Amino acid sequence: MGDLTPKIKTIFILLVAAQAAHSFEEIKFELWQYVAPSRWIGELFHDDVAVGFAIANGLIVAFGLWCYFARVRPGHRAAKFWITIWALVEVVNGLGHPLVVFYQGRYFPGVYTAPLLLVTALYILVALRRGEPSSSH
User: Fold this and answer.
1) Does residue 52 fall inside a structural domain?
2) Which of 1, 40, 47, 82 is deepest in the core (most CB within 10 A)?
3) CA distances from 65 to 29, 50, 137 (A)
4) pLDDT, tens only, 54-72
């Protein structure tokens, strides 16, 4: 599969940072008030759904950081797998929020940061598909 370019590695950590911003927006504007699965996830982690939802989102971001530091940055053989999975999930996330706004005609928590997820994830997927040449170590 070849090594990942430094550029793709950098864009991946930016995708994780975009997810952190997205999680913050969802927490700040109480996504669990609008979406039952978000409420259930919050309740799974804590009796106070707001705290549980924040914990769940913190774990998502922590997992992204683990992917970067343990797999992507060192060029682990599974790095492209993790990047691809993350990018695909974020494309869905990045499209989902604006679609809800389109259908509901009002603000929906996460919509402001969704474009960051979408653009960054699509960039990664296109770069991986093109097979950007890797740099020498």
Assistant:
1) yes
2) 82
3) 24, 23, 23
4) 999 999 999 999 999 999 9
